[in-house]
Amino acid sequence: GENGFLTAATVTISGIPITAPIVLQILSIAVGLAFLGNFFVSTIVAQGSQKRLIISNIINVVVNVGLNLIFIPIYSYVAAASITIISEIIMLIFASIIVYQNLHFFPRLTIFFKSGVAALGMGIVLYGLPLSFNVVLASVIGALTYLLLLWISGSINREFLDLIRRPRVLG
Length: 171
Fold this sequence. Notes:
This protein has 171 residues and is mainly alpha-helical. Helix content is 73%, strand content 4%. It has helices spanning 20-47, 53-103, 109-127, 135-153, 158-165, and strands spanning 11-13, 16-18. The protein has a two-stranded antiparallel ribbon. The radius of gyration is 21 Å and the shape is flat. It starts with 10 loop residues before the first strand and ends in a 6-residue tail after the last helix.
């Protein structure tokens, strides 16, 4: 009906109506941060240093629950989505510090920039497709566009492809 998912339960903050699509955009940022944080957390677990995450997790829980108790009664689900971003940033910071302390490693930010530009290019191509376009074909076009832009930026080169194709012996 008229009051479907995308229009239901509008929250107004400072005179600005906030609907579900805006909250989903906020949560998409949290997903990206969680993806980055997972890289560092997985590295910590692979090192066998997961006990070092206990303190950061406790701090994260205290901050998250505290902020939720304060702001959700005032700003509803918009606060919950925004606080999720804060929690993911806290996890990302702590995990990246632990990885740096253990391995003296931090990813080169140029790779993030190049992949971000490639993702933006892919998004522009996909945005230009009509809504009725076949989703499977659009996925293939999107993936090929992304890979082509990574190739053009130098993120993927012949040496990288050779490394992927090289047979591996396990054990």
